[in-house]
Amino acid sequence: MHGQDKLICAERQAKRVIGANVSVATAKITDISLEAKRARRFGLFNAVFYALTVPLVLGLGLTTPERAPAS
Known about the structure:
By secondary structure, the chain is mainly alpha-helical. The protein has helices at 3-32, 35-60.
């Protein structure tokens, strides 16, 4: 495997782990929140989640590189 392929595999694995954890967390928020407070709690969760993950992903360069069109 080339370096770029390893990076893409690592990115996909990270997305699976993060996606699974986000799904569980949002289900838990839905279960424990009263309907009147649910939107606020989802907003806080998303704000904290993106405030922590976006700088990490950008700092590590875990974005998929642009690929040249196949010739």
